[in-house]
Design a protein that fits this description.
The complex is a heterodimer. In chain A, β1 and β2 form a beta hairpin. A two-stranded antiparallel ribbon of chain A has the order 1-2. Chain A is mainly alpha-helical. Among the domains of chain B are: 237 residues, no CATH class; 186 residues, P-loop containing nucleotide triphosphate hydrolases (Rossmann fold, 3-Layer(aba) Sandwich). Chain B has a six-stranded mixed β-sheet, sandwiched between helices. In chain B, strands 2-1-4-5 form a four-stranded antiparallel β-sheet, covered by helices on one side. The longest helix of chain B is centred in the middle third of the chain and has 27 residues. The chains are: A mainly alpha, B alpha/beta. At the A-B interface, α6, α11, α13 and α14 of A face α5, α10 and α12 of B.
Chain lengths: 337, 619
């Protein structure tokens, strides 16, 4: 193997790793605030890419109807409880988004506009899914939440198959530029992925350190009961966490679609790899999860070169030693003498 | 809990239904019945693993697949008879589970299901990649179970097998091993403290579940006569989880109900939904998933238990006596130690008493001999020193109380002595043998019993079962003997002992009540009876009187004195000073992780150092 291949594989690995990083960070936020392992996040990756591809192909994306029905249900429930101000998030906002999406599809808006609308649709789905699937469970165990996540995953791939069919899609690359650095060619897309990930991580850091909502979210993550006692709205913080996680998923979907074709069920596999990275970070540490994501991406890229068929097996088997190490060092928090 | 007569009727009825299957079902219905039975057998394994012993697996279908591929390959390409495929399939499924179990039985909490996801995904790809297995399309032309077997006969055979494994599993649950499995789900620390080898039990349960999955896989390969990776992947595994969640995760019947619901509904929805929605897709999976989410939200214990409780409340409305013997009205004070019980013992106990053979009793050290001794014991958690240079001695026939303000290190000292924590430095000797660094299980085996500050019981199991758990080390029946009911004499002796200990602490009136329904004070008494069942030489009691009323405290003190007079060594942590001063022969006082005084109660009460620790030096 010569250096050029080595560097190309490394570049490839770091690019996919950066995408796993986004997903891992989203999973960690959702897990730390709500104790739910948001497995269906991976399906939202597919949702985002398929929504965008569908708009580019001048078809109305089915996801907008999914969003509208969930909003309508949430609106009905809120109004039944006399919460009139729910009209804005569950009535007005989706109506505006729907009209914009329909118009963009009808008149063929530029890709960037469609991309922003896809981001909006998929991001809005996150808190709604949390509202209907997880919130009613209250203080359920991590395991019950995990089973709900699995069930939700099947619901979402069923919906994706119904809305978009089984075809894989690719979206046009945002840039065809490439740069030569020494002997290596760095593609513009890779660079773009890296920059977006850096920007996202920076923005998230700013959000959680500098804003009141971010601080509330961190408080809820470190001690849920304590945060509630000082007035942090646990429902709001759960929904915000899921919004962030689904936003990360949507961005990842849009970043991957130009590199690899995505179909209704491939997002799940990508999500699982983000999840492997999050577990490497012990479901607690952001820097470790970030390192884990880059490692997973690189290992995948190299094992794809040497033993392509065994690529997934190698990546998923990575989990087991990490889990053993976690069990031995952390023990079971629910069982103390 | 069904009575023996009911049980026999149920078995006969189920066998009759199975035998009738070939005559009443159409070809298609018989196929559905077969797949329901196969799914139920696999789901039964998952109930034992997840519902009973608390280890959630999202990789159950892997073991179905391992056996299915083994027997399929042997009979299709190897020229073996399908009958030979059964032991081979079971060996491969069980062997793989054993190896995975070696790795994963140390994984606890929610990390385990995550690990199962990892290997399930890995095996799915492996089935598709390994040469000679037909890739992701799989291979067919697998011979049927027996040459020329009809679909109806196959369904009947599967029915009989399902009945057999259900009986075996039911036997297992009402045995020493079954109790230990439930303890594993509740608290590993408690399970180890009564001498259960939790890692080994977790592994064995895991292998047992895999063997049931393997049995299902063997049937699947020869009924479907076609194997491919798809029915053994993550989705299939999760479908098994759905079955047990929908059916009721901790009930054997739930596995059958859940399997029937999932298999039959899938068949119906497969036709119905695409017609309704006008396109094809996995709508039945979506419907199930929504059902699972709804079931977790509204009936978290599953459909079967929800239906049972509905039926029970219906019964109560119709003014029939409730089937469960919950919370009989009880006296304000618990029945005195010597007073005979006022309620008739339950039938199981009558039978137990009829042919009880007593459990082995360990030889007790002579009164006054040194039982437990700690020297310069120390425990650090990072920078925090929870206990420092603790010297304690407890003799046979002596009650020693450990007192001190909150956070003084009393419970830490307890956890060190019982092996729940390993000391950072110092030595602990039990019956003149060094025990520091040994696990709780080894220490329990040497004759140390304990209770917990935060009560650790199986809330849904009966008081009697909870107490019998303490006798774990004094009986030997394992999986095989329990399943085949070869353990009955020993089990009777175990229950007899448990019943006797329940009487000693005054719980005879609630033997059949779920332990979780008792008030906290009486739950502590269950823990004490459980500890006594271990036949200890030394008993460590962590705040035994907390939550008890005055009369109950007096009765407890009386019991502890009786135990002391029999020669037991007792070390207790307690905050109730009247209780302690009245009861203890010697008192050790701790403050800030150090022992500041040690002596008879009168001397301690006058000790200026102790007064300062408690009252801030006012005296």
């Amino acid at each position: 193997m010569d250096n050029a291949i080595l560097l190309a594989l490394l570049q490839d690995g770091l690019t996919t790793g950066a995408i796993y990083l986004l997903l891992a960070v989203g999973l960690l936020i959702a897990f730390s605030v709500t104790r739910a392992i948001f497995i269906p996040q991976g399906d939202l990756v597919s949702f985002a890419a398929l929504t965008l591809a569908s708009m580019i192909g001048r078809h109305i994306p089915g996801t907008i109807w999914l969003l509208d029905s969930l909003c309508a249900a949430a609106l009905a429930l809120s109004l039944a409880r006399g919460r009139l101000n729910a009209v804005i998030p569950y009535g007005l906002a989706p109506a505006v988004l729907t009209i914009a999406t329909l118009a963009a599809t009808r008149y063929g808006a530029p890709t960037a506009v469609s991309a922003v609308l896809s981001l909006g649709i998929v991001t809005a789905l996150g808190p709604l899914l949390y509202r209907f699937a997880y919130e009613p469970l209250g203080e359920a165990s991590v395991l019950a939440l995990l089973i709900v996540s699995m069930a939700l995953h099947f619901v979402l791939i069923g919906i994706a198959l119904y809305c978009f069919g089984a075809e894989g899609v690719s979206t046009p690359a945002l840039t065809d530029a490439s740069f030569d650095i020494g002997s290596v060619t760095v593609s513009g897309q890779s660079l773009f992925v890296g920059l977006v990930c850096l920007a996202m991580v920076g923005a998230l850091r700013w959000f959680s350190v500098r804003t009141l909502y971010g601080k509330a979210l961190r408080a809820a993550a470190s001690d849920r009961l304590g945060a509630r006692l000082i007035g942090v709205d646990h429902v709001l913080s759960g929904r915000t966490a899921f919004a962030l996680a689904s936003f990360a998923a949507a961005v990842s979907g849009l970043l991957i679609a130009p590199i690899t074709p995505l179909s209704y069920d491939t997002g799940f596999e990508i999500g699982l790899k983000g999840f492997v990275a999050a577990v490497i970070g012990g479901l607690a540490s952001y820097p470790l999860a970030a390192a884990g994501a880059l490692i997973v991406g690189t290992i995948e890229s190299f094992s794809g070169f040497w033993a392509s068929e065994y690529r997934n097996i190698i990546v998923f088997s990575l989990l087991i030693p990490v889990l053993i190490w976690l069990s031995l060092t952390r023990g079971n928090p629910e069982d103390r003498a | 809990m069904t009575k023996p007569g009911q049980r026999r009727t149920l078995i006969v009825a189920a066998l009759a239904v199975s035998a009738a299957l070939p005559f009443v079902l159409t070809e298609y219905e018989a196929t559905l019945a077969s797949f329901t039975g196969i799914a139920a057998i696999a789901a039964l394994g998952l109930v034992l693993l997840t519902g009973v012993s608390g280890q959630t697996s999202f990789g159950h279908a892997t073991f179905v697949g391992l056996a299915a591929y083994t027997t399929a390959w042997m009979s299709r390409y190897g020229g073996w008879s399908p009958v030979a495929g059964l032991p081979a399939g079971l060996a491969i499924a069980g062997g793989t589970a054993f190896l995975l179990g070696l790795i994963t039985s140390r994984i606890s909490g929610h990390y385990l299901p995550l690990a199962t996801i990892a290997w399930c995904a890995s095996f799915f790809y492996l089935f598709g990649i390994l040469p000679g297995l037909g890739g992701y399309n799989g291979f067919g032309e697998i011979p049927p179970l027996f040459p020329g077997i009809s679909t109806g006969t196959a369904a009947a055979l599967i029915g009989v097998i399902l009945i057999a494994v259900t009986i075996l599993a039911a036997n297992l649950l009402t045995s020493r091993t079954g109790r230990a499995m439930r303890a594993l789900a509740q608290s590993r620390i408690m399970a180890e403290s009564v001498g259960i080898d939790t890692a080994r039990l977790a592994r064995s349960t895991f292998v047992l579940a895999a063997l049931l999955a393997g049995l299902a896989g063997w049937l699947f390969a020869h009924v479907q006569r076609y194997v491919s990776p798809a029915p053994f992947g993550l989705s299939a595994s999760i479908e098994y989880v759905f079955m047990v969640v929908i059916g009721g995760v901790s009930q054997l019947g739930g596995a059958i109900v859940g399997a029937a619901i999932v298999v039959l509904l899938r068949d119906q929805l497969n036709d119905l939904l695409p017609r309704l929605l006008g396109s094809s897709g996995n709508f039945e999976t979506v419907a199930f998933s929504l059902a699972v989410i709804a079931s977790l939200q509204y009936a978290p214990r599953g459909i079967a238990p929800a239906a049972t409780s509905l039926w029970r409340s219906g019964n109560r409305l119709l003014n029939r006596p409730p089937p469960a013997k919950l919370g009989l009205p009880r006296d304000v004070s618990w029945p005195g130690l010597a007073r005979p019980s006022t309620t008739t013992p339950p039938p199981t106990l009558e039978r137990a008493a009829a042919h009880a053979r007593s459990l082995p009793v360990r030889p007790k050290p002579p009164r006054g001999s040194l039982i437990l001794q700690t020297t310069a014991l120390e425990k650090r958690f990072g920078g925090l020193i929870a206990a420092r240079s603790i010297d304690l001695a407890v003799h046979a026939g002596e009650i020693v109380a450990l007192i001190g303000p909150n956070g003084a290190g009393k419970s830490t000292t307890f956890n060190l002595c019982s092996g729940a924590l390993a000391p950072t430095a110092g030595s602990i000797r039990l019956l003149d043998q060094p025990i520091q660094g040994q696990g709780a299980r080894a220490i329990a085996r040497r004759g140390l019993a304990r209770t917990f500050q935060h009560v650790k019981l199986l809330p849904e199991a009966t008081v009697l079962d909870n107490i019998a758990l303490g006798g774990h080390l004094r009986a030997r029946a394992g999986f095989v003997r329990s399943m085949l009911r070869l353990d009955r004499t020993e089990e009777a002796a175990l229950l007899q002992t448990a019943c006797f200990q329940a009487g000693r602490v005054g719980l005879t009136d609630v033997l059949n009540a779920p332990a979780g329904t008792l008030p906290l004070g009486r739950q502590r008494l269950v823990e004490i009876a459980r500890g006594l069942c271990l036949d200890p030489s030394i008993f460590l009691l962590d705040e035994p009187a907390a939550g008890l009323r005055l009369q109950e405290k007096q009765a407890l003190a009386e019991l502890l004195r009786a135990l002391r007079d029999e020669g037991m060594a007792i070390l207790l942590v307690e905050h109730d000073m009247d209780f302690v001063m009245d009861l203890a022969d010697r008192i050790a006082v701790m403050d800030f992780g150090e022992k500041i005084a040690d002596g008879p109660p009168g001397q301690i009460q006058d000790d200026p150092v102790v007064r300062e620790a408690y009252l801030g030096g006012v005296a």
